[in-house]
Amino acid sequence: MIHFGERWRFAISVPVALRTDFTGLQLRTLAKQCKDAAFARRLLALAEIFDGGSRSDAARIGGVGLQTIRDWVLRFNAKGPEGLKDGKAPGQPSLLKDEHRRALAQKIEDGPNPAADGVVRWRLIDLAQWIFEDYRISVTKQILSRELRAMGYRKLSARPRHHAQDAAAVAAFKKTSLPLWRLSPRDGRQADRNLVRRRGSHWPEE
User: Fold this and answer.
1) Which of 143, 141, 129 lies closest to 96, judged by CA?
2) pLDDT digits (tens, 9 = 90+) for 177-193
3) 43-76: per-residue pLDDT in tens?
4) Buried (b) or exposed (e) across 148-163, using 16+ Cβ within 10 A?
5) Contact between residue 31 and residue 22 where contact means Cβ atoms under 8 Å apart
6) Main-chain dihedrals φ then ψ at residue 151, nearest 5 degrees
């Protein structure tokens, strides 16, 4: 509403015109073919406008208000029918920052101190506890596993155990051997990357 001296005039919003490279028939055909009810409803609402119907009729078909119809028109004009689809909801942002990932990588590279840490190889739960104690960030084993994979690490399967293996000898060997990490190839580089020996650092166990 605009004031001109002692008179008042109402500003009327001019409807946004639809792009002209589609027809109502095309949108109705797409609506019949799609299985997404919300997407089909938006297509039918705009098809009504293409066929000469009012924006109020389109709003009734879409089950929305006139402002939403205007938003749909803008989205349609920008991207065509694809603009009427619901976008994928973004996932939760990672709690770990680059500094945390660098510290985590160093922790893994160094491996645990059996005397101080009480383990000979890191488990996911051990690293999650360390992250909480040092940074007060609470992460689940699933989240931490995804982070490690994103950092280029992947789990190595244990070799099958021979039936004649001596349990005591195996335990002694684990305390002195150097477990392996395998870094996943990234962007096609070093697809045949050799195994790198790490001190006390298998892929963290579950």
Assistant:
1) 143
2) 444 444 555 544 443 33
3) 999 999 999 999 999 999 999 999 999 999 999 9
4) beebebeeeeeeeeee
5) no
6) -80, -5
Side chain identity at residue 38, one-letter code: A
Amino acid found at 96:
L
